[in-house]
Specification:
- With 320 residues, this protein is an alpha/beta fold.
- It has a single domain, classed as Ribonucleoside hydrolase-like (Inosine-uridine Nucleoside N-ribohydrolase, Chain A), CATH 3.90.245.
- 38% of the residues lie in helices and 18% in strands.
- A nine-stranded mixed β-sheet has the order 3-2-1-4-5-6-11-9-10, sandwiched between helices. Strands 7-8 form a two-stranded antiparallel sheet.
- The longest helix is centred in the last third of the chain and has 21 residues.
- It is globular and about 60 Å long.
- The two termini are 27 Å apart.
- This is Inosine nucleosidase.
- It is an enzyme of class 3 (hydrolase).
- It is found in: Cytoplasm.
- Its main location: cytoplasm.
Length: 320
């Protein structure tokens, strides 16, 4: 008997690799995208919404609603770090696309998340590709959200490797550490895909040439926007390739067998030189005293990835 596709909401800050992940989701029969919610990160929230609407127009999927998310962090911080030096000033490789025709829905991202989870308890997976502000606000707004939501698959954390904002912190967690801590301790079913995993998944220069020579609509579009992303990776990491952060996370939601996980409690450092640091407590030792770690719910953290299979899926689905 054919299983119904998994309903997913993508919380996104597009972003070049977000564009790849959104297109991948639309090309994956295993999932049904029921909405995009937007957040700051690679770009400010207003531009994230514009880019999300634009990407759905490119894909011919303007039937999918876009709900605009928070413009500020959980603690109302507005000095947001935007990664325009990675993704271009427009977030999509400085291609200066015309503005989209569509508009976001009236409902806010937080209300959309809460209401969809309530209407489909246990059936919805949120794929969170940016800072976790919208998800944390949903947890705070609705005491039942953490148990109504089926799963949260998030790109975040560096888990025992160096971060990519500074040695301690990965960009999405650093974008709103307070929100990340709320989400990790919420009791929801969570799979965290950190850069310890995504830095193993590289789209090479020759993969890029294959995309460029394909006549496929998505391949052609991505070839245009990837230029900026490749040159950033060459400067920052001295590689001829790009890390597939968002596509890997999206595919882990589509096919959980692509990663293996460990489980434990995760807490996030919210201040000081290690702000944004994610620490996994494996619960192997029982500590005597009661602390901020005691009785915290466990989450899953990816520890290995089948990188060749991820890259093959990305190429197979985006070449068409």
């Amino acid at each position: 008997m054919a299983t119904e596709p998994k309903k997913i909401i993508i919380d996104t800050d597009p972003g070049i690799d977000d564009a790849m992940a959104i297109f991948l989701a639309l090309r994956s029969p295993e999932v049904e995208v029921i909405g995009l919610t937007t957040i700051y990160g690679n770009v400010y929230t207003t531009l994230a919404t514009r880019n999300a609407l634009h990407l759905l127009e490119v894909a011919g999927r303007t039937d999918i609603p876009v709900a605009e998310g928070s413009h500020v962090t959980l603690t109302k911080g507005t000095k947001l770090r935007i990664a325009d030096f990675v993704h271009g000033a427009d977030g999509l490789g400085n291609q200066n696309f015309p503005p989209p025709n569509g508009k976001p829905i009236e409902e806010s991202a937080v209300d959309f998340l809460v209401n969809q989870a309530k209407a489909n308890p246990g059936k919805i997976t949120v794929v969170a590709l940016g800072p976790l502000t919208n998800i944390a606000l949903a947890v705070q707004k609705d005491p039942d959200f953490a148990k109504n939501i089926g799963q949260i698959v998030l790109l975040g954390g560096s888990f025992a490797v160096n971060g990519n904002v500074n040695p301690a912190a990965e960009a999405n967690i650093f974008g709103d550490p307070d929100a990340a801590d709320v989400v990790f301790t919420s009791g929801a079913d969570i799979l965290a895909v950190g850069i310890n995993i995504t830095h193993q998944v590289v789209l090479s220069g020759s993969d890029r040439e294959k995309l460029a020579s394909s006549k496929g609509k998505f391949a052609q579009y991505l070839t245009g926007i990837l230029e900026v992303y490749y040159s950033y990776h060459c400067d920052a990491y001295n590689i001829n390739g790009v890390y597939l952060h968002d596509p890997t996370t999206l595919l882990a939601a589509v096919d959980p067998s692509l990663v293996t996980c460990t489980e434990g409690a995760v807490r996030v450092q919210t201040s000081g030189i290690t702000r944004g640091l994610t620490i996994l407590y494996n619960k192997k030792k029982r500590f005597e005293e009661v602390t901020e770690w005691s009785n915290m719910p466990s989450v899953k953290v990816a520890v290995t990835v089948d990188a060749p299979r991820v890259v093959k899926l990305v190429m197979d689905r985006l070449l068409s």
